[in-house]
Amino acid sequence: MINNIIEFLFFAFSLSAILSYIILALISAVETIDYMKKNSFVNYKEILSSSISPSISIIAPAYNETLNIVENVRSLLSNHYVNYDVIIVNDGSKDDSLEKLIKAYDLVKVDYLINSQIPTKPLREGVFKSTNPAFEKLIVVDKENGGKADALNTGLNISPNKYVACIDVDCLLLEEALQKMIKPFLETTDSKVIAAGGVIRIANSCVIKDGKLLDVNLPKSLIVRGQILEYLRAFLLGRMAWSKLNGLLVISGAFGIFDKKTAIEVGGYDTKTVGEDMEIIVRMRRHMEEQKVKYKVAYIPDPLCWTEAPDSYKIFISQRNRWTRGTIETLRKHRKIGFNRDYHTLGLISYPYWLIYERLAPVIEVTGLIYFLYLLLNHFIRWDYAIVFILLSYLFTVAFSVITIITEELTYHQYKKKGIGFQLLMTAFLEPIINHPFILYAAAKGNYDYYFNKKIKWGEMTRKGMSND
Amino acid sequence: MANIYQYCIDYFNDAPIIIQLSWVLSALFAVTLISLIFYLKFLRSTLRTKERIQNVYLKKYESDLIEYLYSGNEDEEMTKEQGIIVNYLHKCAQNRLKRKLIITTLLKLRNEVSGETADAIKRLYYQTGLIDYGTLKLRSKKWEIVARGIKELAQFDVTEVHYNVIAQINHPKKEVRREVQMYLVKLFHFKGLDFLDLLKSQLSEWDQIQLLEILQNFDDQNLPSTTKWLRSKNTSVVLFALKIAKIYNQYDAKDEIIKLLEHPDLNVRIDAIAVLGDLGVFEMVDLLKNNLNEKDIDEQIAFFKMMENMYTPSDVDFLFEYMNHENFDIKVSVNKIFKEMNIQDASKFQINTAPESPPSSTNLIQAS
């Protein structure tokens, strides 16, 4: 009897997960078509050159980035948008990042009146600006180490502008990124846009020169290829649908634009979580719901930001472990909104979805595997059942990935070279076997670390650098 | 073999319904997957071929266009060589893809040239019958085709159909409305702004920026009076009119703008303060000072921001009251003014926007 109930629950969970993916994919398809139609004749150049276009601060925290910091800053400074500045927050780096920046950009220390609306760690060397007019958009802040969230909060305090773009310093922003991302803030008249998220694409093996993406390639490493497919699935077939439902709970920490006033009103980034990018969005949404203000979190599906993905299983596991802990922390912290109709879509759809299919999914999967092992050891396995269920889930996963590849081809067609289609297809078949076990392991370890190993915070991400100069 | 087949059939028939369903679904997914793989292969190859063909045609049309432009002379309306090219392009224009490529080629060159050459390209747009396809788009049931049609007509300066275009001014899709607005302003300059009288929907900030950018391309001196728009019931029109008043220094509109200081919308009141400051309307300083504390904090910030350029020595006592205001922005503005005025108490503030000298400098840069 108990066995039957357990089996029924596993089956119901799997079926509902499959259905939810199909529904989200369908909504994404409709929304993507609509987005493509609406933006096929937009002239971004006019916004680009207009002196009355709103000012944006790009805030990029940096910690021990000496290898690529100068090139990365140069890339950020080469954006074509007219009204923006770049705030680099050197978060207590132990290397010579600051010295390199001072030398490369003729920086001098200035006394800077900071509006400390959000408490942060104190400044170390202080604030620097360039004596060279060519770099007048650059502000470098050197502060004591406080983590990424604390560095972003320093940027929020310093920014003089209405909008802030929070990005990872090693990300490559395409030239038209800012004007495309600022569009929802400027064109929405019936509600307040509090944040906009962009698509993150993986730049490993791509040709990048002088901060420009010249050639898109598919890396040889299977782990990176798997991540490419995973990102495409998440961004093209997932977030687009959540954007349509106005239920986006996360904007990638690698690139997102915020309404600064709202971000400060809610107290900025939470320094106590490792999932600060998700937490701030949930908190901003919660704040707007409680204020009963009509609002929106926008999403731009264009590939505007390219970043380096982990190419070793060790770093990959550490990254996913952190994502898991961040999700648990955020959902626990804001559990009040879950299944609460006062929070509308946020409380009744987004939160429950994240709880069941993101937070609990790995737990259910691991439990399922342990149960399978128990049945196996006791010779209770009904192989006719097991084989067909494994086959069904595998075929669905692969088919879903192939649909993602097709969507990419029909929309942005970034992987043009001959042969890449076949390689992506192979990845779709191998990914569930090769990458997924590591993702599951990382998620399980993330759960363990969250409850039993509180000391662990951020993992180290070793950068190889994307520039091919 | 027959035994295995029979075994499978028997197994399927004897299996519980859930297993039968799972096998059916698996078969369905397998067929779908195979179809998707073939489709992906077809799609990638089609996209590559299409791109190759497009590049070939683009090159061909570009050379045809250049030949057309260079084979004209002043004596004839159309030379023999031009006639051949027109006929060829006319024929090509019947195909949708080729039509799109011809238009792309024409626009690419038209954006790079001006004067007679630009006129010749426009003439070619008419001669090849492309204009007929362009105007036909206005009658489409699909909004994106209507919007694209209006954009195309604007790019080729086709004024003849403007009545048909204006008819779409309150189109339910904002993308169409936006194209109509840009068409009118691009082709009729300030006169085109008359659509503001008819506008029922909100003019977004994005729309406003685009329209102002187009207007700034013209040297037209016939600036319209913004008074009627400053009185508009449509708040977005009022905000847009304030921007025009600021950019074009419309001092004559000051009385109407002063009235906006009591407007129910906060953004209008804030922008009105800023514009009055830009126009240098000194009399409103005292007016605002009188009831400053009753105003919203954002209005107060706007007021002090404006004062940075409008203070007089007689304002010192008033400003001292706000020197240690709890609001950061107000405090910064006041101290900036004192710095400008060389008031001793504020001499420790050295506010600049960029360092003037290397390392020894201790400039205080404002963050507001």
Automatic annotation (TrEMBL), chain A:
Pfam families assigned: Glyco_tranf_2_3 (PF13641)
Annotated transmembrane regions: 6-30, 360-381, 387-407, 419-444
Top-level lineage group: Bacteria
A Gene Ontology molecular function term of the record: glycosyltransferase activity
Keywords: Glycosyltransferase, Membrane, Transferase, Transmembrane, Transmembrane helix
Coiled coil: none
InterPro entries according to UniProt: Nucleotide-diphossugar_trans
Similarity comment: Belongs to the glycosyltransferase 2 family.
Name of the featured protein: Glycosyltransferase
Species assigned in the record: Flavobacterium muglaense
Source taxonomy: Bacteria, Pseudomonadati, Bacteroidota, Flavobacteriia, Flavobacteriales
From TrEMBL, chain B:
Protein source organism: Flavobacterium muglaense
Domain of life: Bacteria
InterPro entries linked: ARM-like, ARM-type_fold
Keyword Membrane: yes
Name under which the protein is recorded: HEAT repeat domain-containing protein
Keywords for this protein: Membrane, Transmembrane, Transmembrane helix
TM region(s), chain numbering: 17-40
